[in-house]
Amino acid sequence: MTSISPPPFRIYLLRHAEAQQAAPGQRDFDRSLSDNGYAAAEIVADEAADKGYKPDLVISSTALRCRQTAEAMRRAVMPSTEFRFVDAIYNGTLDIYLSLIAGQTDQDSVMLVGHNPIIELTLASLIGRDALADTLPRGFPTAGLAVIDSSPSGWVLTDFVTE
């Protein structure tokens, strides 16, 4: 498990919702959410709001499908929530994801909106592979939101929200 010090007390990891298949000649980066993806992003945002999950900062990939997923979360968070869109998340490594989280020392909670497989590897790095396998035996689904809290013994998966 990874140690992030000093940590935000809560980390949210959100995988973008389902994207459309790329049209001929379209870049992967420019793929938008499918109709099902839009619906799933809205459902997860509503459930997150109902549960009071409101990050202080949302950091999202600049890929269109991540920006659209982050926008669905915008209405579920506090008006003061800051949104940042970071190119390095698209095609980013585990080290990039973890350093973005670790760098938020002035925030109590941070949400990272990213891509698989790195979003799943980030969760495994924080809570451990066994805990990940127990919770998500089929992997990290699209529009899945992991809620991870800091504890004296490390990071603990508190909740997992999905449609």
From TrEMBL:
<dbReference type="InterPro" id="IPR013078">
    <property type="entry name" value="His_Pase_superF_clade-1"/>
</dbReference>
<protein>
    <submittedName>
        <fullName>Histidine phosphatase family protein</fullName>
    </submittedName>
</protein>
<dbReference type="Pfam" id="PF00300">
    <property type="entry name" value="His_Phos_1"/>
</dbReference>
<dbReference type="InterPro" id="IPR029033">
    <property type="entry name" value="His_PPase_superfam"/>
</dbReference>
